[in-house]
């Protein structure tokens, strides 16, 4: 099987779980890049709230609905344009789950057991984890392949799941003797594929961190943003002349990366601009930049969330458009597998 995807429409798919709260990590590592790909115009772009993935761990029903609309608002406020991209909620496009079942019959137990996210999330208590949590990556493969998506922008943490997606596509194509599913390319690039906690440069910034000081939330006020960056852990050294000087300085490196991603520069450019300055000088510049970029997004999110019916209308329309792509691909899959129509 080759990686020749040239027969497929260039198409981007990515998703985020509506499991509560969006962080600067989600924004820089995912949503901002989704917007950039939408604007580049070289691919069709499809972006998703993966509510079926969210319930692999317990979600209070009222919270799930609220978080789904909030994530939709986050996408829209950040610049996802529902005319240019298809914006959907996963459970509204049933072909995802339907293809997911087929892939449960393609993926092997051994492949699934090697997934580090499963091992991390299930931990010592794996007997008590949901079967859905174990099967999470096959549904993710279905999310992508039910569109024949060729490219998937994600953060570093999703790399292994995308390798599994490629393995599932290749095994399906091989077992059924077809060249039906593309071998999707992950797009993990830029300075923001791993934004770290503001309190501990060895941990990724996460909505599940118990300390709110460890992260910037998309809905944080300007005061919150200023306070969190002011208190962010750093070291006493000034900023170096080149990025090499940031080695073994994870907290410093992280703040430089955040500045770089927010200002669409490379880390090298940022370091060149601030070389020799102390964090006492760099941090206020970072705060100004972050407030200027994030403030309007938070405000727009809050505005959009005042009108949930409008969000629901947009999602219904997104699902309709999505199904024009997914229904024929699922039907062809069923035909290949030998399911009688
Ligand atoms: P999650 O919130 O874990 O569902 O992640 C949604 C998307 O945001 C995925 O593409 C992740 O890779 C990305 N992401 C989450 N946290 C970070 C982070 N700290 N740095 C960069 N990307 C992240
Ligand atoms: N697993 C991804 C995460 O936790 C979310 C996700 C589900 C996804 N399906 C996807 C990402 C398909 C990209 C493509 O971040």
Provide structural commentary.
The protein has 341 residues and is mainly α. The chain folds into two domains: 11-193 and 308-337, HUPs (Rossmann fold), CATH 3.40.50.620; 212-303, Tyrosyl-Transfer RNA Synthetase, CATH 1.10.240.10. The chain has 13 helices and five strands. Strands 1-2-3 form a three-stranded parallel β-sheet. The two termini are 29 Å apart. The relative contact order is 0.15. The structure holds adenosine monophosphate (AMP) and tryptophan (TRP). The site of adenosine monophosphate has 16 residues, from α1.
Quick structural overview:
53% of the residues lie in helices and 6% in strands.
Looking at this protein, list some descriptive labels.
three-stranded parallel β-sheet, 53% helix, single chain, Rossmann fold, binds tryptophan, mainly alpha, 341 residues, Tyrosyl-Transfer RNA Synthetase, 2 domains, binds adenosine monophosphate, 6% strand
Number of domains: 2
Percent range for helical residues? 40-55%
The CATH architecture term of the largest domain is: 3-Layer(aba) Sandwich
- Radius of gyration, in angstroms, nearest whole number: 21 Å
Helices and strands, in order, run as: EHEHHEHHHHEHEHHHHH
């Amino acid at each position: 099987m080759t990686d020749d995807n040239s027969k497929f429409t260039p198409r981007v798919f990515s998703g985020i779980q509506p499991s509560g709260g969006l962080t600067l990590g989600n924004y820089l590592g995912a949503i901002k890049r989704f917007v950039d790909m939408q604007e580049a115009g070289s691919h069709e772009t499809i972006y998703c709230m993966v509510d079926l993935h969210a319930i692999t761990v317990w979600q209070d029903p009222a919270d799930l609905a609220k978080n789904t609309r909030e994530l939709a608002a986050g996408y829209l406020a950040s610049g996802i344009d529902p005319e240019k991209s298809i914006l959907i909620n996963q459970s509204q496009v049933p072909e995802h789950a339907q293809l997911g079942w087929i892939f449960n019959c393609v993926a092997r137990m051994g492949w699934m057991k090697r997934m580090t996210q499963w091992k991390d999330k299930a931990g010592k208590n794996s007997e008590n984890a949901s079967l859905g949590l174990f099967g999470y990556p096959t549904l993710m493969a279905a999310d992508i392949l039910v569109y024949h998506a060729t490219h998937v922008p994600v953060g570093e943490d999703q790399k292994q799941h995308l390798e599994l997606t490629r393995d599932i596509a290749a095994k399906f194509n091989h077992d059924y003797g077809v060249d039906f599913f593309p071998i999707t390319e992950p797009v993990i690039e830029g300075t923001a594929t791993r934004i770290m906690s503001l309190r501990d440069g060895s941990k990724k910034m996460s909505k599940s961190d118990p300390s709110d000081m460890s992260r910037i939330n998309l809905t944080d006020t300007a005061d919150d943003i200023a306070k969190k960056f002011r208190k962010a852990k750093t070291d006493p050294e000034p900023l170096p002349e080149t990025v090499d000087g940031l080695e073994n300085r994870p907290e410093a490196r992280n703040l430089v990366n955040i500045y770089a991603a927010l200002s669409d520069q490379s880390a090298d450019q940022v370091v060149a601009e601030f070389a020799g300055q102390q964090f006492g000088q760099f941090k206020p510049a970072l705060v100004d930049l972050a407030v200027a970029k994030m403030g309007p997004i938070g405000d727009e999110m809050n505005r959009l969330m005042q009108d949930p019916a409008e969000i629901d209308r947009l999602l219904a329309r997104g699902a309709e458009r999505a199904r024009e792509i997914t229904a024929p691909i699922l039907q062809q899959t069923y035909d290949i597998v030998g399911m009688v129509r």
